[in-house]
């Protein structure tokens, strides 16, 4: 069955290459594991998946994009190009195959700008990166290494998305939905409307409004509390296509939660249930950006217990979220971490970039702006680069800016710095994949005294962090992606991060861990506060 169905996708690839033969071809690698799919779905299931991939490749060809199926462990393309198969379950080896195939295709003027990962962690594994933040993530689950050709995660050369196979029917439906969207783009029917819906915890409403302002009036952002899941008007099939969430997410709960603003009365619930998977419904064509911790966690999840998968099952074409703990700001200062990433993602999407490239540009912007502002990356900044992933086809555009014509075609639309270069404007300094450091505070305070000083200062603004149940820890300032090399004196060398954490029971029962990371300079002054989502 497998041998009969495989030529279907390749026939569509050939048609796409002929259609673009007059010049350089944009390609999307459709990456999966033959053995993984075979073990899970059997020959009939693999046949159906390959038929759906063929339909997607046909639709891509209509846009001048070569949809290239790539089984990293057993593929005719590997033999043709002289690339060794990947070891099963090894993300580093899978990334190696993607890089080598892309390099060989480039020799024939076919540029792999996109990579669509077909399957969940058991089929195409996430990378497990070191976690530099003092939180509960054992490792950072990431697709970002699939986007780069070296060790620098801040220099993506291709846009990456993932269609998870959390259910056979959902995988097939997602492939057909992506194909239908490509056919619309090929016909010049890129959506132009930008109606938006936003929902945030009231605790960090100021920072959330700064991000939401990229797609709507900031004062239209809904807040929890006072709203909870019975109160908020959940948009359905006729609702806004763009949906932004800045709520709490937990590793062991399907719901997302709000958090009470410190200025609210004590009668308001501290962590109300803000959104549940069953609240989503039918949402064809939606684009979702969520800052919730674990918002894109897929392992051992189904649409009934994961809001991200509920959105995909409801017809959403793109979901951007974090695989683990995510951090953002609280007040009116410059946006940081996930807040800055969300703002830049929406700006890029509205400029007409495909979803995968919008996310890639947002990450480059986050790194560039943070390095310019402080000369190094904190752990919360690097986690935003590493653990935010796109669930959906990375080559799909979701908005046609006024007067724009580039979204309908797959190449020549000017959204990359060039097929052989990094996306966007990369930072001047390289940010290595693995680099760590420890910095000493220079004002003579003992670590315990400094930590207590910070705890008291924070408690004056955020009384919830003043209790005896708050754990306080102190560590060096930048994370494993950040580098103090070349930074101006005093900017990265003499600072520490004081981490305050507390756990509060939510209205639904599960406990919500909240982590507040406070960056302190060499004189004991608080320079930055980031709180987990």
For the CA atoms, what is the radius of gyration? 23 Å
Q: For the largest beta sheet, what order do the strands appear in spatially?
A: 8-7-9-13-14-16
Q: Helical residue percent?
A: 25-40%
**Global geometry:** globular
Biggest sheet statistics: 6 strands, mixed
Could you characterize the architecture of this molecule?
- This protein is an alpha/beta fold and 533 residues long.
- It folds into 3 domains: 2-125, no CATH class; 174-399, Rossmann fold; 447-532, no CATH class.
- 30% of the residues lie in helices and 20% in strands.
- The chain is built from 11 helices and 20 strands.
- It has helices at 2-19, 34-62, 76-81, 91-106, 168-186, 205-212, 307-313, 337-350, 355-374, 379-387, 447-461, and strands spanning 25-32, 65-71, 110-118, 127-129, 140-142, 159-163, 196-201, 222-224, 242-246, 248-249, 256-257, 273-275, 287-290, 318-322, 327-328, 388-392, 471-476, 496-505, 511-520, 526-532.
- Strands 8-7-9-13-14-16 form a 6-stranded mixed β-sheet, sandwiched between helices.
- Helix 6 (205-212) packs parallel to helix 8 (337-350).
- The radius of gyration is 23 Å and the shape is globular.
- Mean pLDDT is 81; it is low at 1-10, 12-21, 405-422, 424-444 and 479-492.
Protein topology:
Layout: H1 2-19, E1 25-32, H2 34-62, E2 65-71, H3 76-81, H4 91-106, E3 110-118, E4 127-129, E5 140-142, E6 159-163, H5 168-186, E7 196-201, H6 205-212, E8 222-224, E9 242-246, E10 248-249, E11 256-257, E12 273-275, E13 287-290, H7 307-313, E14 318-322, E15 327-328, H8 337-350, H9 355-374, H10 379-387, E16 388-392, H11 447-461, E17 471-476, E18 496-505, E19 511-520, E20 526-532
Parallel strand pairs: 1-2, 1-3, 3-6, 7-8, 7-9, 9-13, 13-14
Antiparallel strand pairs: 4-5, 10-11, 11-12, 14-16, 15-20, 17-18, 18-19, 19-20
């Amino acid at each position: 069955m497998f041998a009969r169905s495989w030529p279907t996708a390749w026939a569509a690839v050939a048609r796409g290459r002929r259609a673009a033969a007059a010049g350089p071809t944009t390609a999307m690698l459709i990456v999966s594991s033959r053995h993984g799919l075979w073990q899970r779905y059997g020959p009939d299931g693999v046949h159906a998946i390959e038929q759906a991939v063929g339909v997607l490749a046909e639709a891509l060809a209509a846009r001048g994009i070569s949809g290239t199926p790539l089984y990293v462990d057993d593929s005719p393309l590997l033999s043709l190009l002289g690339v060794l198969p990947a070891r099963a379950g090894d993300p580093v080896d899978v990334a190696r195959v993607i890089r080598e195939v892309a390099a060989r295709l480039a020799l024939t003027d076919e540029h792999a700008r996109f990579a669509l990962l077909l399957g969940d962690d058991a089929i195409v594994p996430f990378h497990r990166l070191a976690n530099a933040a003092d939180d509960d993530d054992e490792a950072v689950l990431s697709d970002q290494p699939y986007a780069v050709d070296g060790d620098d995660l801040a220099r993506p050369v291709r846009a990456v998305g993932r269609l998870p196979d959390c259910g056979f029917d959902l995988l097939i439906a997602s492939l057909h939905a992506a194909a239908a969207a490509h056919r619309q783009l090929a016909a010049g029917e890129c959506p132009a409307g930008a109606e938006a819906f936003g929902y945030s915890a009231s605790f960090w409403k100021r920072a959330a409004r700064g991000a939401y302002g990229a797609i709507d009036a900031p004062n239209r952002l809904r807040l929890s509390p006072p709203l909870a899941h019975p109160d908020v008007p959940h948009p359905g099939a006729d609702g806004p296509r763009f949906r932004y969430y800045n709520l709490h997410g937990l590793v062991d709960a399907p719901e997302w939660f709000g958090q009470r603003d410190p200025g609210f009365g004590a009668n308001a619930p501290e962590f109300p249930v803000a959104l549940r998977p069953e609240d989503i419904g039918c949402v064809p064509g939606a684009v979702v950006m969520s800052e919730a911790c674990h918002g894109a966690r897929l392992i051992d999840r189904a649409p009934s217990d994961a809001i991200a998968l509920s959105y995909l099952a409801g017809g959403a074409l793109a979901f951007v979220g974090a695989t683990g703990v995510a951090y953002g700001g609280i007040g009116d200062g410059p946006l940081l971490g996930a807040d800055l990433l969300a703002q830049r993602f929406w700006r890029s999407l509205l400029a007409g970039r495909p979803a995968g490239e919008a996310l890639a540009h947002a990450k480059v912007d986050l790194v560039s702006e943070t390095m310019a502002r402080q000369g190094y990356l904190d752990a919360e900044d690097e986690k935003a680069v590493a653990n935010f992933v796109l669930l959906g086809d990375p080559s799909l555009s979701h908005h046609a800016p006024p007067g724009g014509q580039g979204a309908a075609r797959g190449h020549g639309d000017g959204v990359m710095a060039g097929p052989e270069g990094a996306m966007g404007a990369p930072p001047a300094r390289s940010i290595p994949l693995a680099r760590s450091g420890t910095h000493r505070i220079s004002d003579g305070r003992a670590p315990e005294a400094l930590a207590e000083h910070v705890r008291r200062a924070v408690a004056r603004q955020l009384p919830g962090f003043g209790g005896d149940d708050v754990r306080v820890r102190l560590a060096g300032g930048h994370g494993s992606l950040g580098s103090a090399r070349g930074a101006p004196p005093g900017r990265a060398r003499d600072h520490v991060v004081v981490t305050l954490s507390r756990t509060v029971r939510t209205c639904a029962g599960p406990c919500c861990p909240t982590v507040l990371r406070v960056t302190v300079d060499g004189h004991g002054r608080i320079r930055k506060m980031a709180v987990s989502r």
